[in-house]
Amino acid sequence: MPIRIPDSLPATDVLESENIFVMTEFRAMHQDIRPLKLVLLNLMPTKIVTETQIMRKLSNTPLQIEIDLMQTASYTSKNVSAQHLDTFYTTFDDIKDERFDGMIITGAPVELLDFESVDYWDELTQIMAWSTTNVHSTLHICWGAQAGIYHHYGIPKYELPAKLSGVFEHEVVKPSSPLVRGFNDFFLAPHSRFTEVHAADIEAHPDLELIAVSDEAGVYIAKSTDSRNFFVFGHPEYDADTLKREYDRDAAKGLGTPVPQHYFPDDDPSQEPHATWRAHAQLLYTNWLNYYVYQTTPYDLARVGSEDDNGPDDRNADARA
């Protein structure tokens, strides 16, 4: 089934050129089916790249998905045209009275700042608080995961001695979770960050559980026990060349950023990298959408967050509510 996005969004042509099933708004209006309603809070400066990467992962499922793109009102990205933002993006004030089946909060290049020092922190905390009553299940990515697990559960982040960048092996530590259904016991995923959360802090919290970790990269996936909040501390949505582009950018600035680990063939940045994480990345998004959004969200969106919304816990993740 397709992903439903505005006809003129730049991602449309890219996804269609990759043989991804994209449904136009006109065609979707003539189907008698309720699509999943998702909101993507895009905090990345390269918004078009990020929205395309994430939509690519959302599209390869048997579900029709309607996506609203949201930006912060308290900070406007300088790396994308105002026309693009005005045409395709909304703000929290525009949607705060709506309800959504799912929400995705992206990362942002602000890791070395204290959370409270981020320009839009107050607005972000308002949005995250709103998600507890207006969103069935929320997926947080990279810095968005660090911000979400700090806001909701008080888990701090810690600065690393150097940037963690590369593709690392991870182990599934809770194989019974539907989120990792179909995963290999060990799998690869990319990371790109300056800070981390500690597994011990998550394990000590009664409302959180670890799903996948890495000996080298630390925590990769954690979730709340009620399955309302998911935290992915890497970048499963990254394209094959994203880490290369980040490394080339930093090298051109003379930042002394280390070569991404286990990424370039023979660790040689002059060689073209290959994506070795794509299948598991797709499965992660598909499992979240299927087991924790589609199969458990109320058919009537007005029930999301109400007493009738039992939530997407693992016990009912195999039967649509």
UniProtKB/TrEMBL annotation:
Catalytic machinery residues:
C142, H235, E237
Q: Which InterPro entries match?
A: Class_I_gatase-like (IPR029062), HST_MetA (IPR005697), MetA_family (IPR033752)
Which GO-annotated molecular functions does the record name? homoserine O-acetyltransferase activity; homoserine O-succinyltransferase activity
Protein EC: 2.3.1.31
Major place of residence = cytoplasm
Pfam families listed in its UniProt record: HTS (PF04204)
Q: Which reaction does it catalyse?
A: L-homoserine + acetyl-CoA = O-acetyl-L-homoserine + CoA
Name the residues annotated as site: Important for substrate specificity: S192
- Name of the protein: Homoserine O-acetyltransferase
Source organism per UniProt: Enteroscipio rubneri
Q: Print the organism lineage.
A: Bacteria, Bacillati, Actinomycetota, Coriobacteriia, Eggerthellales
